[in-house]
Write a structure and sequence with these properties.
Length: 91
């Protein structure tokens, strides 16, 4: 069994290290900005997908604090009818 074949569950093997994907950190579009303006619908639309859902921070690259601010601002903008709750259906 020592002919170069390594069992996946064997300790000390490099099996798991070979299959890991390297995740590149996305640049933060807000930099060090603390306040997110809920009246700027064009800016907030960068953080929503085509269906109107708020994108997760792993996709947008913002910090956890900024993600909470963005989510709150998008919800305020939706209530003020500056942004749609759902996307328009083309059918």
């Amino acid at each position: 069994m020592s002919n170069g074949i390594i069992h996946p569950m064997q300790t000390g093997s490099n099996f798991n290290k070979q299959n890991k994907k390297v995740v590149k950190k996305k640049p933060n579009p807000l930099k060090d900005q603390k306040v997110v303006d809920y009246l700027d619908a064009k800016f907030l639309s960068k953080f929503t997908n085509d269906q109107g859902k708020i994108l997760p921070r792993r996709i947008t690259g913002v910090s956890a604090y900024q993600q909470r601010q963005i989510a709150q601002a998008v919800k305020y903008a939706r209530h003020l009818a500056l942004m749609p709750f759902v996307a328009m259906d083309t059918n």
